[in-house]
C-alpha cells in the first residue's frame, strides 16, 4: 500500500496545481449528506488522508470556471494508467504477503497451525490459539484455575455361596468394616446397604451386546448373575440371626464386631427368605457434551460421572456430577477466552450406574468396533470424595507417569503449603505404592480398559483404612458427607476438580499424547518373577515359559524403537505426529486378547480382564502344581493342574503380548518373527 500511495503522490506532483472538489461525510444534523469543499492544491496537503466515502471530481467543462486550467489530457492519461496501477498494487500486495508468510511462519501469534507439546516448564510453548496469541502451560493452568475458582462446588453438590449349595444370601453392613471414631458419624445399626450382586457390568440380560431399542437379542442371563435370591439386611437383624447359629466358631478373618454375636458357622434354625423384586425394562438416558478439537477432532478425551443413586447419593453420584458440571463450565469459559484443545473433550453424565454401570457399559457395547479408534483416555469422577485422609488413583499403567506429574501441580486440600505429591511422599517415599491401585470392576472406568481397551483412571479421596459408611444407603446425604470430612468437603472436591482438569488439559492439548507406552514392559517383568517360581515344575513336565520372556523382550524393543523415532522426527510434521499418536493411543487395545470372543469373555485384557486368557488365571493354574495330589508329571484331575489347559493359556497370553509388540513396532513388513 505504501508503494501505491507513493504513485498517487507522484501523479499529484506531476499534475497542475488546482483546487479539487472533495465530497466529505458530514456529521451532526446533516449526517448522511455529502458536502463540497474547495481546497487549494498546496504541495504536501493530505487530501487523500481519510479512507472514507469520497470522490475525486474531474475538471468542469470549459468556461464554467474561468481560472481552472484544462485537465482533460491528465484525466485521459489517468484513465489509461488506472489498470496498471491496480495491477501493480495487487502484485506488490501478493509478493509482500508471501514474503511475510515464509519469513514469519511458525512465529505469527495469530496463526493456529503451530503445534507444540505442553510440559511442566513454565516457559514451554503449547499450541498457538486464535485470539490470544501464545498460551504457555502456566497460562493454561492459570486460566483453568481462574475459571474453576469462579464457581462454587459446594452449591452444585471380581458367586461362592451359590457354588457351595446355598439357597439364598443375606448381606449386612459389618461394623468392623467402618470407622468407630466417635467424632465422625457412623452408619445406624438399623440401616441396610443397597446394591447389586451381578459379578459384571451393564445389562445382565444382554451380556456383550448393547441393549439399545433397535436390538432384538433374546434375553440371556449373564454368567455373573447369581441364580439364588439375595437380600440386604441391617446389622441389628444380622445380629439376631447370628446369635441363633450353633456349631464351630468361625475363622478369625470372618469375625466381626457385632455386640453379643459369637459368629458361629451353624447349623441354625430354618429361615424363610422372600424377595419381592419386580423385573421391568426401564429406559435410561446418558447425556453428552462436546468441545471439538482443532487438530485431531476425531480423537476424544472422555470424562464422565454417574448421575443416579439408590438413595440421596451425595458421595456416590452428587459430588462427581457437581465436579463434572463445574469442569464443563470452566472449559467453556476457557474456550470463550481463546483456548482451543488439539483433541475433542467429551463430557458424559451416565445413567443406571448403581445397577452395575449400565449406562456406560451399554454405550461401550454399542460402539465397541470404533471406540478404541476414537477414545484416547477415560477419566471417571465416580466415588471421588469418600474421605480426605488418603488419595488413590485406580488406573491403567499407561497413565501413571502423567498422574505423578499432575499431582505435583495440585495443592493438598488438608495440608497447607504442600502439593498432593508432597503429601503422599511424606507418608511413603514410593508414591506409586501409596497411590496407584488397580481398576475395580464396580467402576465405570473398568469397562473402558478391560472391555474396550481404552486407558482409564478414577480418583478417590478416602478415609484412612476405613470405608465411607453411608455409601449405597439412605444416609448418604450431603450433611453426613460434610460431617465425615469435618467441613472440608468443598476443599477436597476442589482438589479433585483441579486434578481432573489439569489432566484433561495435558491429554487434550499436548502435541504428543503423554501416555507411557513403555510401562507394560515393566508390568510383565513384575509378573515374570511369579512365573519363575514354577520354572522347575514346568521343566520336569517338558514345558517352558521362554516364549513369554521373548515376547516381553520384543515389546520393550518396540517401545524403545518408537521412542527413538519420535525423538528424531520433525516436530512440526503433522502427518508423523498423528501417526505416532494413533500408535500410542491404541497400546491399551493391543492387550485385549484377539483370540477370545467378546460375547463369551467380555473383559479380554490379559492383565486386568477376567477369564482363562489372563495372566492372573495362568498364575492361579500354575499354583495347582504345588497342590496336585498325585505330584507326578502328566497327572491331571478335574480340580488340579491340566497340561492341555495350561498350553492353551500360555499360547493365548504369549501371542497377545507378541501381537502388542508387533503392533507397537509399526510397519508389518519390518517385523521379523519366527513362526
Structural account:
It is a single chain. This protein has 3 domains: 153-210 and 220-272, Glucose Oxidase, domain 1, CATH 3.50.30.30; 287-509, Aminopeptidase, CATH 3.40.630; 518-629 and 639-665, Transferrin receptor-like, dimerisation domain (Transcription Elongation Factor S-II, Chain A). The protein has 675 residues and is α/β, with parallel strands linked by helices. It has a 7-stranded mixed sheet with strand order 7-9-8-10-13-11-12, with helices on both faces. A two-stranded antiparallel ribbon has the order 1-2. Strands 3-4 form a two-stranded antiparallel sheet. The relative contact order is 0.09. It has helices spanning 2-14, 72-104, 137-149, 153-156, 160-163, 235-242, 314-336, 358-366, 368-374, 400-407, 420-427, 431-435, 444-452, 478-484, 489-509, 519-532, 535-540, 546-568, 574-585, 587-590, 615-627, 643-665; strands at residues 20-25, 34-39, 128-129, 133-134, 169-171, 230-232, 287-291, 296-306, 343-350, 375-380, 390-395, 436-437, 456-462. The two termini are 71 Å apart. The longest helix is centred in the N-terminal third of the chain and has 33 residues, at 72-104.
